[in-house]
Amino acid sequence: MAAVQTLTLVVPPTPASYAAPAAASSSRLAPPHPSGHRALLPVGPAYANHLRLALHHAHSFSSLDKHLEKERERLAALHSADNAAEDDLGVGSEEEPEELLHRDPKEWKSQDHYAVLGLSHLRYLATPAQIKIANRKKVLKHHPDKKAAGGAAKEEINSRFLTGVNLNTNDDAFFKCIAKAHEVLTNPERRRQFDSVDPVFLEMEEDIPTAAEIKSKRLDFFTALAPAFALYARFSKTQPVPALGTSDSTKAEVEGFYDFWYNFDSWRSFEWLDKEVNEGSDSRDDKRYTEKKNKTERARRKKEDIARVRGLVDLALSLDPRIKRIKQEEKDAREAKRRAGAPGAPAKKTKAQEEEEKKAAEAAAAAAEEAEKAARAEAKKQKAAAATAAKKARRQQREAEEAAGAA
């Protein structure tokens, strides 16, 4: 702790030439006006309106009000140019249905965040700039302060009919829904979780036709299934995603399409559907149990999603008219080649000719092997004879040398 130091200050005495002022310098009172009141200066917007009323509108308040209204419209038009770029995006202007306006903000997990911000026509395609502008428009429209002002005005107008009734309820439930929708859609991770279980996507997913429906209703293969593949394409980690194509697609395009979808890598997750821990519970066991159950449910839903996409690809492969066309084209090509063969190529040999050639080749190989064996045996024999002759010559020479030595 810091120590307290005491300083001794000595104030010098007042000089002899000092004279006290007639009035205190700190006085804030001005001398009274001779007429008994202060003068008003001709300045400010009120005085400007007074001059307009007297000089340009002959003291006609209705004429002045019309002039001021036109002036406000002119200034609004000038300032609207600053927000023209935002207005051109065309977002945030959707009217909210009554059931949406009366939603409970506590049930924010089940609300359609895109519908709350007026982005139903864009949904997952909405850009961050569009989300920002849509949120701004909705906030300006549904801010509690604006509702409070509107309620006060209604209460003043109808006071003679509803005396004592407070029309200003200041209900900010939908404003809380707007805040939560903005919070979710501006967070990339949470937005991705919501897009994975988008209620509109789930409804469209249920409308994908089955094989029986396509056959019974005689639906066009490409018209029925192309939107289904486009629906799941948003979840692909690899972009762009090959489309289903047309009836004239080449073999390479068809094979590339099915190869991609049979190896489809999806980022879709299901954390949004996790159950929360019981409110007010501080038990670690409850939290661990809930997390374990959520993890199991996520894995189950992910497995079902993969199986659903694989089933769609199997369905397309079984009904694709291009597969039958490609197989027929390959069969026709093989038949044509078998009948006519390639131009300038030798005639195709029969099976008997191929067998004879095979046997002749085997016989020639056996004869060559026998000849090689005989050559090796002859060489070995000659080598042994040469060694015997050399040995005999050395023995004779040694005998001759011994006989010479004895003589």
Name the features:
single chain, 407 residues, mainly alpha, 16 helices, 0% strand, elongated, DnaJ_domain_CS, J_dom_sf, Zuotin/DnaJC2, Hsp70 protein binding
Describe the protein.
The protein has 407 residues and is mainly alpha-helical. Among the domains are: 98-186, no CATH class; 200-336, no CATH class. Helices cover 60% and strands 0% of the residues. The chain contains 16 helices and no strands. Helix 12 (221-233) packs antiparallel against helix 14. It starts with 44 loop residues before the first helix and ends with a helix.
Mean pLDDT: 83
The percentage helix is 55-70%
The structural class is mainly alpha
- Give Rg in angstroms: 50 Å
- String of helices and strands: HHHHHHHHHHHHHHHH
SSE arrangement:
Blueprint: H1 45-55, H2 61-80, H3 84-87, H4 98-101, H5 113-116, H6 128-142, H7 144-157, H8 173-185, H9 188-196, H10 199-206, H11 211-216, H12 221-233, H13 251-262, H14 284-319, H15 321-340, H16 351-406
Helix pairs in contact: 6-8, 12-14
In short:
The chain has 407 residues and is an all-alpha fold. 60% of the residues lie in helices and 0% in strands.
